[in-house]
Structure to design on (211 residues):
C-alpha cells in the first residue's frame, strides 16, 4: 500500500499527469491491476487542496482513457474469447466472466455501465461482450457514458478527501487513495453478494415448488 501511494503521489506531481492519467485509464480497461481510480482520486484530492491540476482536463483524460481501454477489452474478447491468457483463467476472473456472460443477455446496457465502477468486473463484462458478439456501436456509446460517469464519481471522492483535509495535499491524496480502495472493496463485495442471491433465489423457489 505504501509503495502504491508513493507511486501515485509521484504521478500526481508530474507535469505529464494528464498523459499519465489517460495511459493508466487505457491499460486499466483491459488489465485490472493498474490502479486508474486511485490515481484519479489522488489527483482530484490534490486539486481540492491546491487548485492544481485542472479538474476538467483531468476528468476528460480519465474518461477518454477509460473509453479506449474498455473498447480494447471488447476487441480482445472478440478476437480471443475469455480463456486464452493465464490471468483470465484465475478462479475469480473466470467466475466473473461466467456471471458477466449470462447477465449480458438479460441486461446488457445496465451491466456495461455499472461494471465500469468495478475493476475486475469491467474487464470481465467488456471482454465477454466482445466474445459474445454484443453490438459494437451500442457498446461504444455505452462506454462513453460509463467513462464520463466513472470519472465524475472518482473526482467527487477525491474532492471530498481534499475538502476534509485542507492545505495538506499529500495527506489528502493519501486519504483519497484509501477511500477509493475501500469503496472499491465495498462495491465488489456488494456485487458478489447480489450475484449469490440471484443464483440462490431460483434454486430456493424450485425447492419450494418440488417440496
Amino acid at each position: 500500500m505504501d509503495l502504491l501511494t508513493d507511486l501515485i503521489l509521484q504521478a500526481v506531481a508530474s507535469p505529464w499527469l494528464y498523459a499519465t492519467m489517460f495511459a493508466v485509464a487505457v491499460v486499466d480497461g483491459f488489465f485490472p491491476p493498474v490502479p486508474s481510480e486511485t490515481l484519479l482520486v489522488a489527483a482530484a484530492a490534490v486539486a481540492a487542496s491546491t487548485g492544481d491540476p485542472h479538474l476538467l482536463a483531468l476528468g476528460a483524460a480519465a474518461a477518454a482513457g477509460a473509453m479506449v481501454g474498455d473498447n480494447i477489452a471488447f476487441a480482445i474478447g472478440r478476437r480471443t474469447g475469455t480463456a486464452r491468457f493465464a490471468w483470465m483463467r484465475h478462479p475469480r476472473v473466470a467466475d466473473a466472466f461466467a456471471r458477466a456472460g449470462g447477465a449480458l443477455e438479460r441486461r446488457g446496457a445496465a451491466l456495461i455501465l455499472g461494471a465500469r465502477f468495478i475493476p475486475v468486473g469491467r474487464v470481465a463484462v467488456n471482454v465477454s461482450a466482445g466474445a459474445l458478439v454484443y453490438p459494437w456501436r451500442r457498446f461504444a456509446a455505452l462506454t462513453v457514458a460509463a467513462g464520463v460517469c466513472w470519472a465524475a464519481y472518482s473526482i467527487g471522492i477525491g474532492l471530498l478527501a481534499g475538502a476534509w483535509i485542507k492545505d495538506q495535499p499529500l495527506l489528502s491524496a493519501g486519504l483519497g487513495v484509501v477511500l477509493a480502495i475501500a469503496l472499491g472493496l465495498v462495491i465488489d463485495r456488494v456485487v458478489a453478494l447480489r450475484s449469490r442471491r440471484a443464483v440462490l433465489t431460483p434454486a430456493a423457489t424450485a425447492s419450494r415448488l418440488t417440496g
